[in-house]
Amino acid sequence: MVLVLTGHTGGANSVAFSPDGQMLASGADDDTVRLWDPTTGRVLRILRGHTHWVNSVAFSPDGRMLTSGSTDHTVRQWDPVTGEELRVLLGHTSGVISVAFSPDGQMLASGSADRAVRLWDPATGRALRILEGHMDMVSSVAFSPDGRMLASGSWDYTVRLWDPVTGQPLHVLKGHKGMVLSVAFSPDGRMLASGSDDHTVRLWDPTTGQVLRILEGHTDYVNSVAFSSDGQMLASGSWDHTVRLWDLATGEELCVPLEHTGGVLSVAFSPDGQMLASGSADKTVQLWAIRE
Length: 292
Fold this sequence. Notes:
Structural class: mainly beta
């Protein structure tokens, strides 16, 4: 079963489920964030305030805050229930490409085309520190489940791992033959996935930096990767118009690719693992029943 959500007038760059699974957020090239009921596909509200593309959306772990990052150089925080804009975080000197909350909700990370990762206190909007070292755009940021590690993927072909508390670099992961466009930790923190414009997904041991497996099958950029909540599956979205589902135990594809009519820009599993959301350059968000 697939539910197609329409309404965006630009590509849907990012999708994220609320922690309780009752809401789905999408950020798009139409400068808006839309909040949807994932059961019915109904639009709950439209958040306006950004003045350029919305590249990334993320819910806080308690679901009380939604954060969005935009090409307008800002990070914005919203109340997802009322739609009220809570604050605007300023500091990046170029577009914000990715945002992510720490598991305890005490820290917010943002990655930007200015090559920096910024860490913020989401409760106050106060800047905590700047992580520098990438040589090109930071396209994706993700915290480990225990919050002790932050991963950042960059157009400089690398993934960097940081201690978010001290800001110290831990590892530089090299191996992709193209820009790293997305990073995600497995639920147990023992695996890190990265998607690249070299058409592959790499699975790493974040402790040692060792490559565990390379997933091949996409025929264009891999823009987004996401683990299922049970850690058994990985979804990858690609500019080849498909979403692929992988069995992490074997590295094999689980089913025929799920298809959009444009490049897939973002993928996210629902918290219960029953649904997968995908945002696409075809201006739609699609909801797929993974386990019925």
